[in-house]
């Protein structure tokens, strides 16, 4: 069930759904302004209360709610066990051959091996038939993730707050991001302002915050540092890290931290923690099946690119998939990090609509990439960070992300120095984007470098899977 409202341009509305009076919301929408949309799985006969609240501003005192229902097959998939396998490779050509099999090759790649997610016995047989040898790293990823979510829930209930600025012990759902951004903007009006880049395929706003002293000035010419997360929906840590950075800046400024105060006087910092909003909602706020009665306690639904393991956006690229919700569309969608304009259509992307690296029908074919492109083109950022997961050792990747056009950029000495400094601080590896992951074209920050001279970096967060235990993948990192 999807519920939406539009309260007009002058007010701020929020929307929530509850299963029982006095209980926590099972789904919510807390965007800047008055365009709200929530999605929750329900069974026939369920009773829910939906509440819309006008928080501030003018406009109508009451607005209509729209309810859309999608009937889904609640049967569990046959042979849907997900495993993570370390597949032996001998170099870039073998990596390319592995990717051409149509399997889910993760970002965890070295010169000797690539970590691959396999979703069925058929995929395991395909890998073996192609002559690749594999060692199982995680035999049942769904079970491991379930255990991680249980331990995170226990930590949230009984453990002391984590050392993060937020004190969190578990992954956010989408309205946790929007509620917190709204709160820090409202409570720090001279330091933080809301930012809306554009809208997603499912017509949700892509939101962030800008942080700087005297933030509403537009004529000071300060350089812009831009930090984004969650281009890939299942990479939950990639949104947590920029969000925690935003909170750290605000807290440090309010507490009189001289370094942070000096930084925010000289630089404008823009944080957009979730770019692929639709995909992240499908990934993070979905249960083990359509019949799951707790949409906030996300566990994997073991089908390739569905629910918790959705990577791409929510465009229905597979025939027949438009009639079902995004979370149930197996292999559907566009990889936003292959859809940008610079060197679009090159190596490291796919024209296969079912591939995890499907690049779309043309550069900027997706509203999300269009929004990021238009926003950054108007800013001319100095540094652009796009966060991803996962690698076993953690990486700071710098441009170029491909070597068939240019081996190193003219700015390589300075970019390497900065990348090495960041890697030294985090204990990760600093390297060129194509060095071990292979070529990637149509990626987010390439246009900004080749057109604007923006230094672009991709942190690949250290971890054991796409959204491993929060204490390890977020708090520790």
Q: What is the topology?
A:
Layout: E1 2-6, E2 11-18, E3 27-29, E4 35-39, E5 49-57, E6 66-68, E7 83-88, H1 92-99, E8 104-109, E9 113-118, H2 121-129, E10 134-138, H3 141-158, H4 174-187, E11 192-199, E12 205-211, E13 224-228, H5 237-254, H6 258-266, E14 268-272, H7 277-284, H8 367-379, E15 383-386, E16 388-391, E17 395-398, H9 412-426, E18 429-432, H10 434-437, H11 446-452, E19 455-462, H12 470-475
Parallel strand pairs: 13-14, 13-15, 15-19, 16-19, 17-18
Antiparallel strand pairs: 1-4, 1-6, 2-3, 2-5, 7-9, 7-10, 8-9, 11-12, 12-14, 17-19
Number of domains: 3
Shape: globular
Q: Strand-residue fraction?
A: 15-25%
Low-confidence stretches: 287-302
Word description of this protein:
This protein has 477 residues and is an alpha/beta fold. It has three domains: 1-69; 83-143, Alpha-Beta Plaits (2-Layer Sandwich), CATH 3.30.70; 164-477, Aminopeptidase. Helix content is 27%, strand content 22%. Strands 11, 12, 13, 14, 15, 16, 17, 18 and 19 form a nine-stranded mixed beta sheet that branches. A four-stranded antiparallel beta sheet has the order 8-9-7-10. Strands 4-1-6 form a three-stranded antiparallel beta sheet, with no helix packed on it. The protein starts with a strand and ends with a helix.
């Amino acid at each position: 069930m999807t519920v939406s409202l539009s309260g007009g341009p002058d007010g701020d509305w929020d929307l929530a759904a509850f299963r029982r009076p006095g209980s926590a919301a099972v789904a919510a929408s807390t965007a800047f302004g008055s365009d709200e949309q929530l999605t929750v799985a329900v069974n026939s006969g369920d009773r829910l209360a939906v509440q819309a609240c006008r928080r501030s501003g003018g406009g109508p005192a009451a607005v209509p709610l729209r309810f859309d229902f999608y009937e889904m097959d609640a049967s569990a998939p046959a042979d849907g066990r997900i495993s993570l396998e370390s597949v032996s490779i001998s170099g870039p050509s073998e990596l390319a051959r592995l990717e051409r099999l149509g399997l889910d090759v993760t970002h965890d790649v070295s010169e000797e091996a690539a970590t691959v997610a396999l979703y069925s016995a058929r995929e395991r047989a395909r890998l073996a038939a192609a002559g690749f040898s594999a060692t199982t790293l995680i035999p049942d990823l769904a079970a491991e993730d379930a255990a991680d979510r249980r331990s995170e829930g226990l930590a949230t209930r009984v453990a002391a707050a984590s050392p993060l600025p937020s004190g969190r012990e578990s992954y956010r759902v989408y309205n946790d991001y929007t509620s917190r951004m709204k709160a820090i903007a409202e409570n720090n009006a001279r330091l933080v302002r809301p930012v809306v880049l554009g809208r997603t395929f499912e017509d949700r706003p892509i939101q962030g915050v800008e942080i700087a002293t005297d933030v509403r000035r537009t004529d000071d010419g300060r350089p812009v540092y831009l930090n984004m997360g969650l281009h890939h929906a299942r990479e939950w840590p990639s949104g947590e890290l920029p969000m925690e950075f935003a909170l750290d800046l605000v807290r440090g400024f309010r507490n009189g931290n001289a370094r942070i105060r000096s930084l925010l006087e000289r630089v404008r910092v823009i944080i957009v923690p979730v770019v692929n909003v639709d995909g992240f909602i499908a990934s993070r706020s979905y249960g083990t099946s359509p019949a799951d009665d707790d949409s906030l306690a996300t566990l994997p639904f073991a089908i390739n690119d569905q629910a918790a393991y959705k990577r791409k956006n929510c465009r229905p690229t597979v025939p027949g998939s438009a009639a079902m919700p995004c979370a149930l569309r197996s292999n559907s969608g566009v990889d936003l990090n292959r859809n940008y304009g610079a060197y679009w259509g090159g190596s490291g992307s796919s024209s296969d609509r079912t591939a995890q690296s499907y690049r779309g029908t043309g550069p900027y074919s997706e509203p999300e990439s269009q929004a990021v492109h238009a926003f950054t083109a108007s800013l001319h950022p100095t540094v652009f960070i796009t966060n991803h997961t996962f690698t076993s050792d953690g990486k700071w990747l710098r441009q170029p992300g491909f070597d068939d056009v240019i081996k190193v950029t003219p700015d390589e000495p300075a970019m390497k120095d900065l990348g090495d400094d960041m890697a030294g601080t985090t204990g990760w590896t600093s390297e060129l984007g194509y060095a071990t992951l292979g070529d990637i074209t149509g990626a987010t920050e390439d246009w900004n470098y080749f057109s604007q001279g923006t230094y672009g970096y991709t942190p690949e967060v250290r971890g054991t899977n796409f959204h491993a235990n929060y204490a390890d993948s977020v708090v520790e990192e």
